[in-house]
Amino acid sequence: VAEAAALAAGGELLVPKRRSTGAGGGPGRVTCAVARAG
Fold first, then answer.
1. pLDDT, tens digit, for every residue of 11-24?
2. The pLDDT of residue 27 is above 60
3. Is the separation of the CB atoms in 34 and 12 below 8 Å?
4. How many Cα atoms occupy the beta-carbon half-sphere of 10 within 13 Å?
5. CB-side exposure of 35: number of CA atoms within 13 Å?
6. pLDDT at 1 exceeding the cut of 60
7. Domains in the chain: boundaries
8. CB–CB of 10/38 below 8 Å?
9. I want to staple 22 with a disulfide (CB 3.0 to 4.6 A). Which of 17, 26, 30, 31 is the partner?
10. DSSP string of the chain, one letter each residue
């Protein structure tokens, strides 16, 4: 809900994405994706 409100406000949102395994089956890591409205 907060994310939707932030996007509706026209701001940028950082969405954390957790990955169980890294590239090549390495250790897990957390990446962030930027979502922009408009």
1. 666 666 665 555 56
2. no
3. yes
4. 1
5. 12
6. yes
7. 2-36
8. yes
9. 26
10. -HHHHHHHTT-EEEEEEEESS-TTS---EEEEEEEE--
